[in-house]
Design brief:
It contains nine helices and nine strands. By secondary structure, it is an alpha/beta fold. The model has no long low-confidence stretch (mean pLDDT about 95).
Length: about 280
Amino acid sequence: MADPLRHLLAEATRRLRANQVDSPRLEAEILLSYVLKKQRFELYAGRIKPKGEQISQFYRLIEQRSTGIPLPYLTGKVTFMGLVFKVSPACFLPRPETEQLVEHCLAYLKVFPERPAVLDIGTGCGAIALSIAYHFLPAQVIATDISVSALALARYNRRSLGLTGRVKFFLADLYPPGKKQFHLIVSNPPYIPSGQIRSLPREVKWEPWAALDGGPDGLKVIRQVLTSAGGLLLPGGYIFLEIGYGQDQLLRKEHFSGLRLVGFFKDFSGVVRFAVYHKN
C-alpha cells in the first residue's frame, strides 16, 4: 500500500477505535474508498495518491462517524437483499434482520395467484417493497409512508432499480387511499417503547424518532395496523410484522378482528422478531 494511504487508514482507525466505533479498520477503509471512489481492494494496489481535498473530506467523515453518525448516512447508501439503496437521515436504516422478514414474505407469496397484491406499510427508503418487487416479479406492490422526505428516497431507489412500473408509493398514515385489498401486508413499524429510546445505542438516536417510537409498550402502531388489517386482507391473506424484544408475549394475549395468529419467527440472533397473522 502507498505510504499516504497507510498513514490515513492507521490514523483514522485509531480515531474511530478511541470513539468506540465497531470494526474501526473496516469502516475507515469503507470511508476512504467512498472518498476516493475506489473499491476497497484498490486501496492496497499501491498506485493511489489522494489529493488534499480528498484527505480533508476523509478526515471530516471520520470525525462525523466518531460522533456516532451511522456509516450509511455518511456514504448515502446501504445494501439490502443484495440491492443498493440510497439513504439519508430522513429514513430508518434497513437492518439485516429485516432481510429475514422479506425472505418470509417471498416464501409465502408463492402460495397466492399469479399476481399477488402486496402492501408495505411505513416503507422508508423502500427497501422492503422494492426488494419484494425485484425478487418476486409477479407481485403488485403498493407502499406507504407518512414522511415526504422518505418517499423521495423510495422513489429515487425505485428508478435506480428499474422498478418504476412495478411499485406505487403513497403519502399516507399506514394505509393507502381507496378500498383495495391485498394478499399480503408487511410492515417494519416503530416498535421501541417510548421510555427506552433515550437508552438506545448512539447510532440509533440519529435515525428518525417517528420511525422508532412505538408508544408506551412499543405496540401502538402495531395495534393500529392489526386492528385494520382484517378489512384490507383478502380471504386467506397474511400479514407479517417485525416486532421488538418480548412483544410476542403481549401479542399472544390480544385478539384482532378477522385475524388468526399463525405464530412467531426468530431472527439470526435467536430473538423472536416477526409475527405472522392469517385472515380466515
